[in-house]
Amino acid sequence: DADVTQTPRNRITKTGKRIMLECSQTKGHDRMYWYRQDPGLGLQLIYYSFDVKDINKGEISDGYSVSRQAQAKFSLSLESAIPNQTAFYFCATSGGPNTGELFFGEGSRLTVL
Amino acid sequence: GQSLEQPSEVTAVEGAIVQINCTYQTSGFYGLSWYQQHDGGAPTFLSYNALDGLEETGRFSSFLSRSDSYGYLLLQELQMKDSASYFCAVGGYSTLTFGKGTMLLVSP
After folding, report:
1. How many Cβ atoms are within 10 Å of B3's Cβ, its own excluded?
2. CB-based contact B93 A98, cutoff 8 Å
3. How confident is the model at residue A29 (pLDDT cuts 50, 70, 90)?
4. CB-based contact (8 Å) between A39 and chain B?
5. CB distance from A63 to chain B under 8 Å?
6. Could A42 and B87 be called an inter-chain contact, meaning their C-beta atoms sit closer than 8 Å?
7. What are the pLDDT digits (tens) for A32-60?
8. What pLDDT is recorded for position A1?
9. pLDDT digits (tens, 9 = 90+) for B50-86
10. CA closest to A32 among chain B residues
C-alpha cells in the first residue's frame, strides 16, 4: 500500500459544485501539504499544516480550504469549483524541517466543466 | 518571494551525460532539492543540497553554489527511463518552492 494515499484519483464535476479531495498517510509525519500542478508547470503550494491545530496558507490559497482531521488526514475542499481550478492536485508529507524531501501521493486529477 | 529558473526542455541520447541548471532568488534559503516526475506520475525525490558542493547518488549528482544562487542536476549514462520532467525546488524553513520543470527527452 502507498504511504500517502489520495482519493479520488480522478474526478469530473461542474462549476459551482463543492469538491473534497482527501489525503491520508501512514508515514507518521506531522507535516502535510497540498500542491496544485497545471500541465507543463511546476507545483504551487495551496495550504500546509504542521499539526492538527496548525493550518497555513500557501501561495495560491484563494478558492480553497483545508481541514486537518488527524495527524494522518488532511483534506482539501473547493467550496464552489470553477473551470480554472482544473488541475492535478498532490498531497505530500515531510518528516521535518530542512530535509528538502517531500513524499507525494499519486495525485488527484480534477476537471471542472 | 522566491523564483527559480530552469530550462524548459533538454534532449539527449542514451548513454550520454546531461546537466540541468537551476538558478534561484529567495529571501530565505535552506537548501536545493531535485525531483523527478514521469508523465502521469507523482514527483519523487532525487537529492538535496544544503551546503556547497557535489552530492552523488548513483548515476545522478547534484551541485550547489550558494554564493551564485545556482545548482545543477547531472545525469550520467542516460537511459530511456530517464525521460521525465525534473524540478528544482528551494527550501525555506517550512516549505518548498518549485521551479516550472525541465522536460528531459532521451532518444535511442
Report:
1. 11
2. yes
3. very high
4. no
5. no
6. yes
7. 999 999 987 789 999 999 999 999 999 99
8. 64
9. 999 999 989 999 999 999 999 999 999 999 999 999 9
10. B95
| Inter-residue contact A53 to B90 (CB < 8 Å) | no
* Residues in Cβ contact with B80 at an 8 Å cutoff, skipping those fewer than 6 apart: B14, B106, B108
Instruction: Mark yes or no for CB contact B100/A42 under 8 Å.
Output: yes
Average pLDDT of the segment spanning A7-26: 97
Distance CA B6, CA A73 (A): 34
Q: Chain B window 87-106: which residues touch A at a Cβ cutoff of 8 Å?
A: 87, 89, 91, 93-101
Give the CA dihedral A38, B103, B40, A95, nearest 10 degrees: -80
Cα gap A36→B86, rounded to integer Å: 16
Residue A30 grid cell: 506531522
Cβ of residue B71 closer than 8 Å to a chain A Cβ: no
Residues of chain A contacting residue B89, judged by C-beta atoms under 8 Å apart:
100
- Which amino acid is located at B75 in the chain? L
- What pLDDT was estimated at residue A5? 97
B42 grid coordinates: 507523482
Instruction: Kindly identify which residue of chain B lies nearest to residue A42, measuring between CA atoms.
Output: B100
Q: How far is B29 from chain A (nearest CA, A)?
A: 10
Distance CA B104, CA A91 (A): 24
